[in-house]
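Worked example

This section walks through a single chain of length 178. The input is the sequence exactly as stored; nothing has been trimmed or padded.
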Amino acid sequence: MTNQLAAPEAVRLETLSEESSAESLAAAREMLLEYGRFVIEQPGAARFCFGSLEQEAARLPHSYLDQGGGCLLATIGETPGGFIAWRALSPSPQVLAEAWEMKRLWARPTARGLGLGRRLTEAVIDRAAAAGRRAIYLDTAPASMSAAYRMYQQMGFHPCARYNNTPVDDLVWMVKLL
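Given that input, the structure is written out below as tokens.
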């Protein structure tokens, strides 16, 4: 696969559900674990709990459906290339009512440069707007996820107050108002 933008018709986004194929769920689980292995390789991620991520992967798609969210698998042709998830957030002094948190955006190294991260993020934004959500929150590590951080900024996410207890160092919390 070359690092050129994939033709939109070559990229398929699948909303994962109980009816998803075993192959789709296995691919999503593997990508979620790839994401976790990437995170624990980064400086400052020593407190990231891979064990809880393994449990999250084992329960897909319910680990997000049960939290008022969902997850998407992106394939390029027949090859799984990306994953993203989201969940509902409870209102708090730092979080608006009717908000989602975007989680676990991952594009496989072979799928990078194809616009897959943007497509997945846009899909979550579109779903949030259609569901009447007021905001989408996320946290990211600009030092190790610089391309994603720049993309979030370009897509209208801006820094906000810390809204979760993610144990990874050097995170930036961001929000996009809808």
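What to look for: The mean pLDDT is 90.
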